[in-house]
Amino acid sequence: MRKTNQTQLAAIVFSLLSATATGAWAQGAAPQPTPPVAAPAPTSAAAPVQQAAKAAVTPQTVDAIVAVVNTDVITQQELASRVNDVVLRMKAQNIEVPPMAELQKQLLERMILERAEVQLAKENGIVVDDVMLDRAISRIAEQNKMSMPDFQRQLEHDKIPYPAFREEIRQEILLQRLREREVDNKIQISDSEVDNYLAADATNKQAAQELDLAQILIQVPENASAAQIAQRAKRAEEAMQQIKSGGNFAAIAAAYSDSSDALTGGDMGWRAQDRLPSLFVEAVANLNPGQVSPIIKSANGFHIIKLVNKRAAAATPTDTAAAAIQQTHVRHILIKVTPTVTAAEARRRLLDLKERIDNNAAKFEDLAKQYSNDLSASKGGDLGWVYAGDTVPEFERAMDALKPGQISEPIESPFGYHLIQVLERKTNDVSKERQRLAARMAIRERKTEEATNDWLRQLRDSTYVEYRNDDH
After folding, report:
1. Higher pLDDT residue, 65 or 390?
2. At what angle do helices 191-203 and 432-461 cross, to 10 degrees?
3. Share above pLDDT 70 across residues of the chain, in percent, rounded to a whole number
4. Quick check: 268 and 260 in contact, CB under 8 A?
5. pTM of the predicted structure, to 2 decimals
């Protein structure tokens, strides 16, 4: 929501296509009646025609393989297309484009890892169907405050073909589900870790600050030899030297970093300190915004961390200063979208139910018991008291906008369409259970990043790769 060590190389046959000959040439090749007189010798004017015909039957390379990844291949056209897309996006984000040779190497390595992930996802039966994909794209359009037609026009304006965009989002969802299965669901957090976190939080107010970091990661293979470690350390030193010489950090990250955020200049975004690896927090503890850490070593490789900025963080449930938080008693009626119930049909059904409730023709809880598609139906749709963050963002936004007793219009979420009614609200002290849950979430976020990097490194190391170009 793993298979590794696949080092077998299937036999790959890549045929070079030949251009078809012209119709005139094809007719000339067929047996013809003997003419009554000898054909005249070719004149000089006929020579270009003969040369063209000769060229027409010369095999032409349509594409070339640049890398074999297990049983799949990456072609030169695929790499060139990816390079072109990334250059356009980097320029749109005002990120300096690194030297083309370095960018091609970075993107080829990224494509190799993506192919390995996609292959693993398929082996594990993970798929992203069109219904799930359409909902995800609709949410992206909504987050950009656009209708779907406007969103498609914007993509066209940005020279991003909509079919290609759809498949890119499909792959992102596929890889996210794979990582949830392979990494997120396997992370374990002990009670003692939560206890230690809360004890540290009570005495150390680092969590009250947020950091905007950027990184360069020079990854080291698992079980690397001394020579490999030395080679990767040298690459980290080269990147550091360019930074010290006044080079642009974002461009150097795009050229050198092995991290997934390399092509956005290594930007990690704003994070609370308690949700960052302690190694990173310690590395920038004495830096001012704009400064860069020395090279630091982790289990994944060598890092260079830039402190872009820092700011005070909003109070969290684990912060003892945050004495009270709001709870909402809410109920809903859910109509799921299925192969037999379209989104329009689900919305229409809920509008009919809402009209019946508004006209006092039926009670909310009775309709929930009869029509709602989730486990709360037996309780009249009652979800009990919920905290901020307990429900998906779409549901929470609609819920927060309601007054007690008020019923929403049909609201779409990843689960389907909802009618939401707020029954009452209250403000309570943060319970110990909520504090522990928030602490567990913070620890999970910190562990997930480290575990994901480690898993990706192991997957890459276990993937058979054969380079077919001269640069590798």
Report:
1. 65
2. 110
3. 81
4. no
5. 0.58
What gap in Å lies between CA 269 and CA 212, rounded to an integer? 5
Q: What is the pLDDT of residues 70-108, one digit of tens each?
A: 999 999 999 998 898 888 888 887 888 888 888 898 899
Query: Which residue, chain included where needed, has tokens 């997930």?
Result: 448
Beta-carbon contacts of 260 under 8 Å, excluding residues fewer than 6 positions away, are 456
**Residues 28-73 pLDDT 10s:** 333 333 344 444 444 444 444 455 444 445 555 567 999 999 999 9
Q: Which amino acid is at 341?
A: V
Nearest partner of 87 among 106, 103, 101, judged by Cα: 103
Three-state SS for the chain is CCCCCECCCCCCCCCCCECCCCHHHHHHHCCCCCCCCCCCCCCHHHHHHHHHHHHHCCECCCCCEEEEECCEEEEHHHHHHHHHHHHHHHHHCCCCCCCHHHHHHHHHHHHHHHHHHHHHHHHCCCCCCHHHHHHHHHHHHHHCCCCHHHHHHHHHHCCCCHHHHHHHHHHHHHHHHHHHHHCHHHCCCCHHHHHHHHHHHHHCHHHHEEEEEEEEEEECCCCCCHHHHHHHHHHHHHHHHHHHCCCCHHHHHHHHCCCCCHHHCCEEEEEEHHHCCHHHHHHHCCCCCCCECCCEECCCEEEEEEEEEEEECCCCCCCCCCCEEEEEEEEEEEECCECCECHHHHHHHHHHHHHHHHCCCCCHHHHHHHHCCCHHHHHCCEEEEEECCCCCHHHHHHHHCCCCCCECCCEEECCEEEEEEEEEEEEEECCHHHHHHHHHHHHHHHHHHHHHHHHHHHHHHCECEEECCCCC
Strands 267-272 and 72-75: unpaired
d(CA 174, CA 172): 5
Hey, what's the torsion of the CAs at 237, 242, 243, 246, to 10 degrees?
A: 160
- What is the rounded distance in angstroms from the CA atom of residue 257 to the CA atom of residue 266? 7
Contact between 393 and 372 under an 8 Å Cβ cutoff? The reply is no
Spatial distance between the Cα atoms of 237 and 225, rounded to a whole number of angstroms: 18
- Comparing 68 with 263, the larger pLDDT belongs to 68
Spatial contact of 315 and 321, defined as CB atoms under 8 Å apart:
yes
Q: Whats the size of the chain, residue-wise? A: 472
Say if residues 100 and 83 touch (Cβ distance below 8 Å): yes
